[in-house]
Design a protein that fits this description.
The chain is mainly alpha-helical. Helices cover 82% and strands 5% of the residues. It has helices at 15-34, 36-68, 72-104, 108-136, 143-146, 150-170; strands spanning 5-8, 11-14. A two-stranded antiparallel ribbon has the order 1-2. α2 crosses α4 (108-136) and α4 (108-136) packs across α6. It is flat, with a radius of gyration of 22 Å. The termini are far apart.
Length: 171
């Protein structure tokens, strides 16, 4: 079976590379449309909301248990959800203020440019995690498709190694 692709300089790009580039460009376009401040604050909002809820849900759950006579499970669950939403909304509010400040200063172009790069990075991180998980499984051999890929070899696999070692350090 012939491999579809094209050569650009000394590099060979196959169908997987084209798919990765198209998806990365979609992420870049999304980043340009939303802007860096909104895009980053929405992603950071999940992490900050998760961290705040994880750290303080035990304290707030005692307050719910004592005030409303709720069972421990429900008071912890409600405290976690409320704290997550508060952390997320607070982070989004900061992102909106930053977006308005950049607009007022005439730095809208910088917000869009940084959003472009953030969109590409987000997509590459997600695709590298997917490639990493696909290579861990043994049901379908994905090596024949990924080995000739320029982006899988030069960007996604090294990024996946860095990400997996980072996750192992956290755990």
């Amino acid at each position: 079976m012939a491999e579809w692709g094209f050569q650009l300089g000394s590099y060979w790009f196959n169908a997987i590379d084209v798919i990765i580039v198209v998806i990365a460009l979609l992420g870049a376009i999304t980043g340009v449309i939303r802007g860096f401040s909104i895009e980053f604050s929405s992603r950071a909002g999940f992490l900050i909301g998760f961290a705040i809820a994880l750290i303080f849900s035990n304290i707030i759950s005692h307050l719910f248990t004592n005030t409303f006579n709720l069972p421990v499970f429900w008071s912890t669950f409600i405290a976690y959800i409320v704290l997550f939403i508060v952390g997320y909304l607070f982070t989004m509010a900061i992102g909106n203020m930053l977006d308005r400040a950049l607009d007022a200063l005439g730095l809208d172009w910088l917000d869009r440019l940084l959003g472009f790069f953030l969109g590409i990075v987000e997509v590459l991180v997600v695709i590298s995690a997917i490639v990493y998980l696909l290579e861990l499984q043994s049901v379908i051999n994905v090596r024949p498709y990924l080995d000739p890929s320029f982006f899988a070899e030069k960007i996604l696999r090294p990024l996946a190694k860095i990400g997996s070692s980072f996750v192992k350090e956290i755990i």
